[in-house]
Prior knowledge:
elongated; single chain; alpha+beta; 3 domains; five-stranded mixed sheet; Chitinase A, domain 3
Amino acid sequence: MFFYxxxxxxPESGCSANAPGPLVEYRYCKCRDRRYRAxxxxxMGATLEGREKECCKDENRVMRKVPMxxxxxERLRAELNELKTVRRPSIIQSIAExxxxxxxxxNAEYHAARExxxxxxxxxxxxxxxxxxxxxxxxxxxxVTGKVMFGATVTLINLESEQTVRYQIVGEDEADVKAGKIxxxxxxxxxxxxxxxxxxxxxxxPSGDIEYEIDTVEHI
Length: 220
């Protein structure tokens, strides 16, 4: 949705408008925090109408929640609590002690503490943003139907080697292949999402296509 508009003249060649330059309209889109500009004074209305539609699409995209498992959310909340209750006060104390040492311009301890503070506050904002934009999904509360979904643990059989692999499909920030957790955006997850036990899938991997059969789907 657009909340206000402003008009400006800009000198541009190739426009026959009787003005110092073509009339260019800017509209500010609050949901995207940016301005949209009609590039042509000859088709301004149609262009802005298209931009409004684009804005609505962008707004829906921005508001879409990012899936996260219960475990992933708990780990982020634990880290956030540690940063706020332990790390932040410790850094503030270090800055206060460094100030007592005199001239701040050549005070290495002070500057080091300020850098740590900047990193800490940045990480706090990052975690708070991730939690705010996330949709926490507890797969254990969802009935097992044999269909692969976010949070499910899937056992796959390599049809060529007959070896089995077992992965839980998690959020991008939670992925840890060594621990058997793969991102929902990974090639394997994209290939199996929505499929059911017994289905065969082809994973488009950098090393080449790999065929798997979905053996079991668990909600654990």
